[in-house]
Amino acid sequence: MPAALITGGTTGIGRATAELLHTRGYRVAVTGQNPDSLARARRELPGDVLVVRSDARDLADTDALVTMVSDRFGSLDLLFLNAGIFCPAPVGGVTEESFDEQADVNFKGQFFTLQKALPLMNDGGSIVLTVGIGARRGSPGATVGAATRGALLAMVPSLALELAPRRIRVNAVSPGATETPLLDKLGVPESGRDAMRAGIPFERFGTGQEIAEVVAFLASAAAGYVTGQDVVVAGGYGLGA
């Protein structure tokens, strides 16, 4: 049975991907930090899904995570680097603490998770990084979040070339506006959601399940000749002049 590790897998896109891959025969491990989300994932995900509290900012946590995954699965076929935070603020309102936190979780944490998990990756496996359309399309207040996610996107071509001898494929997925708990956490009012929908040709938000399907495709043999790419899943957002 193939095995997958999903960071940020207790809610939203990560959780939807965990559920989908499990139905397709994967052994799955997910990480999270929020105690409520962790408890809910342990209650509601299938009992054989490994749910691990792990802080991407803490490399000791990452070492412990990789050891647990190695003990449980032995190796990995998919590494889905999905963990991330978003703390919107105008440039003048960004604090050093907020900057460091977003950089540590969104970029540094994902990089070192990849580095430490790489020895577990089977040749021919797949690495997928969640970037987001914000790395290419601007939004006021999103400067640091977009930059730290965009740093992941900048790594993709070099990683794809470096890991090509092992036939490990490296790709990014960039969701647009997606109906996940993040919208509630950010306190986006219905009027704001309506304005966001108005800019999407499909006139609706995406779902976690739709993003999960793309991740599952990138992990599958059907995407065996796809590497170094960023797949945008945004309902056509940004296509207009």
From TrEMBL:
Its keywords, alphabetically, are: Oxidoreductase
MF terms from GO for this chain are: oxidoreductase activity
Pfam hit, one:
adh_short_C2
Q: Which residues form a coiled coil?
A: none
Q: Which family does it belong to?
A: Belongs to the short-chain dehydrogenases/reductases (SDR) family.
In its UniProt entry, what is this protein called? Short-chain dehydrogenase/reductase SDR
Q: Which organism is it from?
A: Actinoplanes friuliensis DSM 7358
